[in-house]
Amino acid sequence: MAAQPSHLMVSADSGRILDSLSTSVLIVDRARSLLYLNVSAEALFGVSRNQVRGRPLAEFLEDSAVLDEVIDRAATTSRPFSRRELALHPIYGEGELVVDCTVAPYEESGAPGAVLIEISDATQHQRITRETALLTQIGGSRLMIRQLAHEIKNPLGGLRGAAQLLARQLDDASMREYTTVIISEADRLVTLVDTLLGPGHFPRKESINIHELLAHVGHLLSADAPPGFVIDRDYDPSLPPLHLDRNLIIQAMLNLGKNALQAMAQNTGRDGRLVLRTRALTNVNIGARRHRLVASVQFEDNGPGVPEHLRDTLFYPLVTGRADGTGLGLAVAQDLVSRHDGLIEFESRPGQTTFTILLPFHVTDHTSENA
């Protein structure tokens, strides 16, 4: 461990000012060792100043090279330099941070070549932007689905009726087999179209324990799962009941679970593992609307991940990464959850994909806020 520089001291007054800031402030020396961080930085990176003071940035950031590049630019030009939406991966934190940062030379540190780094967490802003895009996408997808379904359903009725009439005119049983196939396929397409149209009624909501629904969904998934497939449960038992339409949410969760099963079928050399996880989240924005309390229901699988080229359009109808896929499961699930003022979002990398259903607890808890 690097020795703590004795000549860097932030005065008590300066320290109080820096600790009162909502932005994170770090000071590093020429060797990229940490000389100081304020309270906001401690919270952002999940460390204490005493824990990391004097240590290189690389010891608490998995990939400090992206930040080193900004520091080098500021140090070389002796002028402040900023970068927006920089991805950082704190070793002691949880997940990726997306930040805006400004780096400036800091001559008052007493350490030659020191710089002051000001960091603003842009993760929440990016998340709100992404969710707003998803909500906009839902409306467009729903309209396109309904228009497409109506255009298909009308001629299907005529096709089925004609096949029935033809069957009555045929004396040869072997020929009637062909009309039976036509009728059967027409019925299958009508079922598919009805799925596209979704339920023709408003959600019939009742007070429900979400874990009861997950237990039912887990049982159905286990019956369809190949040998070696494991379902783990990580529930928050304190989660209060939700006001939901049982059938709609079961269908949405089944679609996510089956999607995970199909993804994990592509695993080679290891068994599939699905984690069903619940948590209660506070003060969560879904799009531009803030909810005081939200249930998070996660389906986490160890499959190969969502292909990069599908990520922006994954919830559009008829978009699929499988040759035998219909591209309807995720689109329908998103629509069903949106009927409860909720949203499905996802994070994915090879070996870990997590789809998260966000469900507000009470409609009356909503307060509209522009993010």
Summarize the structure in words:
- The chain has 371 residues and is of the alpha+beta class.
- It has 3 domains: 12-121, PAS domain (Beta-Lactamase, 2-Layer Sandwich), CATH 3.30.450; 126-197; 206-368, Histidine kinase-like ATPase, C-terminal domain (Heat Shock Protein 90), CATH 3.30.565.
- Helix content is 40%, strand content 24%.
- It has 9 helices and 13 strands.
- The protein has helices at 12-19, 39-45, 49-52, 65-77, 123-169, 173-197, 210-224, 246-264, 329-338; strands at 24-28, 34-37, 81-88, 97-105, 115-121, 206-208, 230-234, 242-244, 273-286, 289-301, 343-349, 352-360, 366-368.
- The strands form 3 sheets. Strands 7, 9, 10, 11, 12 and 13 form a 6-stranded mixed sheet that branches. Strands 2-1-5-4-3 form a 5-stranded antiparallel sheet. A two-stranded antiparallel sheet has the order 6-8.
- Strand 9 and strand 10 (289-301) form a beta hairpin.
- Helix 5 packs across helix 9, helix 7 (210-224) runs parallel beside helix 8 (246-264) and helix 8 packs antiparallel against helix 9 (329-338).
- It starts with 11 loop residues before the first helix and ends with a strand.
- Mean pLDDT is 77; it is low at 1-7 and 363-371.
